[in-house]
Amino acid sequence: MGEQITTLQALILGIVEGITEFLPISSTGHLLVCSQMVGAANTSGTFEIVIQLGAIVAVVFYYWKRLWAKARELWEGRSNLNWREESSPYHFWIGLFLAFLPAAVVGLLLHDWLDVILEDRRLQAYVIAATLFVGGIILGVVDKKAGEVQPKEEGEPKEHELSYRQALWVGVAQCFSLIPGVSRSGSTIVGGLLVGLNRAQATDFSFFLSIPTLGAATIYTLVRNYDKILAVGSLGSLTIGTVVSFITAFAAIGWLLRYVSSNSFKGFAFYRMAAGVLIALWAAFLA
Questions:
Q1: Are the C-beta atoms of residues 199 and 139 closer than 8 Å to each other?
Q2: What pLDDT is stored for residue 287 in this prediction?
Q3: Is 271 exposed, middle or buried (CB count within 10 Å of its CB: 0-12, 13-18, 19+)?
Q4: Which residues have C-beta within 8 Å of that of residue 226, sequence separation ≥ 6?
Q5: For residue 59, what pLDDT is reported?
Q6: How far from 74 is each of 81, 90, 211, 280, CA to CA, in Å?
Q7: Terminal C-alpha separation, the chain
Q8: Residues of the chain under the 70 pLDDT cut
Q9: Which among 105, 148, 198, 222 is most buried, taking Cβ atoms within 10 Å?
C-alpha cells in the first residue's frame, strides 16, 4: 500500500467519483472499494470525500440558471414573508434546508462510529457489499411501486415544489446514505418516490439536495482531517481527482436526467445486487 496517492490513482478515483456520485449506486462504496483495488493509501474516505468538490461544482454549473432564478425570486420577493405558501420565494430554500438538516445532525452524532468502519478496509468491503445488495432490492421494489414509466418529457423535469413534509421525509431517507454503500442519490431518490414524486422529479430534487449535503461534508472533512490529506495526497493528486470528477459528473448528470425521463431504475437495482455479490466474494479473499 503506497504512502502517497499517485497521479494515476487520483485519475482513476476522480473518474469513479464523477460517474457514480449522482447515480443511485453509491459513489462512496465504489470509491472505497476501488481505492483498495488500485492500492491507494487508506485515508478512511477523506481523499474520496474531498474530490467530491468536483461533483459539487458540476451540479452547480449544470443548474446555475435555475439556481440563479431561485435566488433572484428570493431577493425580489423578500417582502413576502408568508413562507408557508408554496408560491413564496422562501419555499424552495426552506424545503432544501429541511431536507439537508436530518443527515447533517445524524452525521455529526455518528461520525466516530462511521470512522470505525472506514478505518477497517475488510469491514468496509463487507458493509458496502451488504448495503449495495439490500439497497438494490429496496430500489427495485420502490421503483416498481412508483408506477409505470413516466412519458418522455423534452428538456428539464417539470418544476415541482415539495411540501415541507415531503422535503423533511426525503431528508430522513438521506440519513441512511451515511452508511457506506447505501448511496446518497439512491436514498434521496427512493425517498422522493415514496413521498409521491415521479422519477424525474425525485432525481431532480436529489441533485439540488446534493449541493448543501456534499458541500458541508467536504468542508467538514477538510477542516477535521486536513493533516491526513497533506500526508497522503499532494496538491497535484487532489487537483487531478477534483477536475476529473467535475468533468465526468457533469456528463453523468445530463445522462441520468435523460435516462429517467423514459426508463425505470430497475437496471440500477440489478447492478447494485450484482455488485454487492461480487464485492463480498472479492472481500472474502482479501489478504
A1: no
A2: 46
A3: middle
A4: none
A5: 95
A6: 10, 6, 18, 48
A7: 12
A8: 1-3, 42-45, 77-87, 116-118, 147-160, 228-234, 286-287
A9: 198
Instruction: Copy the grid coordinates of residue 97.
Output: 434546508
Q: What is the per-residue DSSP string for 45-86? A: THHHHHTHHHHHHHHHHHTHHHHHHHHHHHHHTTT---TTST
Q: How far apart are CA 130 and CA 280, in angstroms?
A: 8
> How far are the Cα atoms of 11, 51, 63, 125, 229 from residue 6, in angstroms, in the given order?
9, 14, 32, 22, 13
Q: Could you give the C-alpha distances from 257 to 204, 223, 224, 232, 250, in angstroms and in order?
A: 8, 33, 34, 36, 11
Residues in the chain: 287
Give the position of cell 472533512.
221
Residue of 42, 205, 193, 68 lying closest to 121 (CA atoms): 42
